Amino acid sequence: MALVTVSGPPGAGKTTVAKMLSRRLGLRLVSGGSMFREEARRRGLSLEELSRLAEEDDSIDRALDATLVKEMRRGEAVVDSRLAGWLATVAGIGAFKVYLRAPLEVRAERVARRDGIPVEEAKRLISERERSELSRYWAYYRADPTREEIYDLVVDTSNLSPEGVLKRILEALPWRPST
Question: Where are the alpha helices (DSSP H) in the chain?
Answer without folding.
Answer: 14-25, 32-43, 47-56, 58-74, 84-91, 104-115, 119-141, 162-172
